[in-house]
Write a structure and sequence with these properties.
The complex is a heterodimer. Chain A is mainly beta. Chain A is about 0% helix and about 55% strand. In chain A, strands 2, 4, 5, 6, 9, 10 and 11 form a seven-stranded mixed β-sheet that branches. By secondary structure, chain B is mostly beta strands. The mean pLDDT of chain B is about 95. Classes of the chains: A mainly beta, B mainly beta.
Chain lengths: ~110, ~110
């Protein structure tokens, strides 16, 4: 298996623009997680899905952030409008309910200028 | 609420030195405990885990023992290598009703030849 795939790997955008981050989980995994990593706040869970349904979105910072999972093999995290404080590395991870391990993608480094 | 506290880094060691990275937790019930490792430019990978008190997780020469009496899960390695340089995250899963992980802030390890 190719592992969790994220795109793009790097994104540079201007403040106010819409940003869409994409994730393809490992086939057969029924949980998908979106995390944000910054030096100041460390690793934060933003939202997670089970069988394509959002279970806990309490970590989503504000209404500018939204996440969808239209099917078992694809999820997006959208920021609209983006702000410089959104600059971070965004990770997607997936897991199978019966297992403990979460498998992380390589991350998307977002820079908002 | 549940939380994980790790020693602050960076931890700087010479090759073949003994490593300890402290981790303590606060949790209700009986959490599972994990150590994840993040190499530069990559996502997190599971290093080892323990699911009940007195369990010892081990992998790649690293070990950690689940100590319920001291609510700790310290990571140890007898002889570190330059290739062990990375950021190490302690994490807990709250119980069987959730797949959500709570991560510590991470500890950077730098090993010099």
């Amino acid at each position: 298996d190719a592992g969790v795939i994220q795109s793009p790997r790097h994104e540079v955008t201007e403040m106010g623009q819409e940003v869409t981050l994409r994730c393809k989980p490992i086939s057969g995994h029924d949980y998908l997680f979106w995390y944000r990593q910054t030096m100041m706040r460390g690793l934060e869970l933003l939202i997670y899905f089970n069988n394509n349904v959002p279970i806990d979105d309490s970590g989503m910072p504000e209404d500018r952030f939204s996440a969808k999972m239209p099917n078992a093999s694809f999820s997006t995290l959208k920021i609209q409008p983006s702000e410089p404080r959104d600059s971070a590395v965004y990770f997607c991870a997936s897991s199978y309910h019966e297992a403990d391990e979460q498998y992380f993608g390589p991350g998307t480094r977002l820079t908002v200028t | 609420g549940n939380s994980v506290t790790q020693m602050e880094g960076p931890v700087t060691l010479s090759e073949e030195a003994f490593l300890t990275i402290n981790c303590t937790y606060t949790a209700t019930g009986y959490p599972s405990l994990f150590w994840y490792v993040q190499y530069p430019g990559e996502g997190l990978q599971l290093l080892l885990k323990a699911t009940k008190a007195d369990d010892k997780g081990s992998n790649k020469g690293f070990e950690a023992t689940y100590r319920k009496e001291t609510t700790s899960f310290h990571l140890e390695k007898g002889s570190v290598q330059v290739s062990d340089s990375a950021v190490y995250f302690c994490a807990l899963r709250e119980g069987y009703n959730t797949d959500k992980l709570i991560f510590g802030t991470g500890t950077r390890l730098q090993v010099f030849p």
